[in-house]
Specification:
By secondary structure, this protein is mainly α. The protein contains 14 helices and no strands.
């Protein structure tokens, strides 16, 4: 690509996120298309072109990494790429190969890589079974709303750790809903359900990271930079709506004995997601108040299952 040298660190980091999202050879065409669509909508002409170049294998990782001019940018890019690859609680052979190559191109040492890997694993790789489950489905509607408010609040925070926590929390919510109806689910079952309904795990993270980067959030896990309020609210609305919708789809699916087909799941998820976008404004004061209560410790506690939602 002729204008690779013009990539700034923000665009280079987002391009690496795209590499990570496309790295899994088992990723569905629908998920890849969703990631590509997001790249088109993010607002960077360079990034939209980069997504096409990456998919056509006409762009090298080395060329993109050249746009990262300092160590903080390189560490942040690796952290985000790792979060995307570990979305859903596992890493494929193709993703492992990509991450090894990325570390080499970024010039990251064993120790600094391990610190990031431990941070990300503490969010992305926690087993579902560590999460407590309600004894009956009676409280599921309330639980779904709490998860939606929490995930909407996480998108108001600048840390990449907060965005990484959204997917495992959605998975834990579905796990708890299934268990309340007597259905024992593993991580692979939950991932399959989310994918069938149309909720992409990797694409959610790409969008969340993109919004943070585009509004100027460039700090690592402990960063305190504030983003533009409008962009923060947009990201919050997306996470609130997707969590609310997938929770109610899961409730209908598992309470009904799993009789909805894939088309029905997708249609219901899309409809509920649209309705939930409108609900976000109603619950925004609660979401903003919830964000003020969150820190690294509380997020890890909730993802790990030892803290209340």
């Amino acid at each position: 690509m002729n204008n690779i040298s013009a990539l700034n660190s923000q665009e280079a980091t987002l391009a690496i996120c795209l590499f990570a999202a496309f790295a899994d050879g088992e990723k569905s065409d629908a998920e890849r298309e969703e990631v590509r669509r997001l790249a088109e909508e993010i607002g960077s002409p360079n990034l939209a072109a980069l997504s096409r170049q990456i998919l056509m294998q006409k762009l090298s990782l080395e060329a993109v990494v050249a746009g990262l001019t300092n160590q903080q940018d390189r560490l942040l890019a690796y952290e985000m790429a790792l979060g995307i690859c570990e979305a859903g609680g596992s890493v494929s052979a193709e993703e492992k190969e990509f991450l090894t190559s990325l570390r080499a191109h970024l010039g990251l040492g064993v120790e600094e890589s391990r610190v990031i890997e431990n941070d990300v694993a503490s969010v992305a790789l926690v087993p579902l079974e560590q999460n407590p489950s309600p004894a009956s489905p009676a409280g599921n509607d309330s639980m779904i709303l709490k998860y939606a408010i929490l995930n909407g609040a996480l998108e108001l925070l600048p840390e990449s750790l907060a965005t990484m926590a959204i997917v495992p929390l959605q998975m834990k919510m579905v796990f708890r809903i299934g268990k309340s109806h007597g259905v024992e689910l593993g991580a692979s079952n939950v991932k399959e359900f989310l994918a069938t309904a149309g909720l992409g795990l990797g694409s959610q993270l790409v969008e969340g990271f993109a919004r943070k980067l585009m509004r100027g959030v460039g700090k690592k896990l402990g960063g305190k930079l504030a983003g533009r309020a409008a962009d923060q609210i947009t990201g919050s609305a997306f996470s609130f709506a997707s969590t609310y919708a997938i929770g109610h789809v899961a409730e209908k699916y598992y309470s009904g004995g799993g009789r909805l087909d894939s088309a029905g799941l997708k249609s219901l998820f899309t409809s509920l997601q649209g309705q939930a976008q409108d609900l976000h404004q109603k619950y925004l004061p609660e979401i903003q108040a919830r964000a003020k209560t969150l820190d690294r410790g509380s997020i890890l506690s909730m993802v790990g299952g030892s803290g209340p939602v």
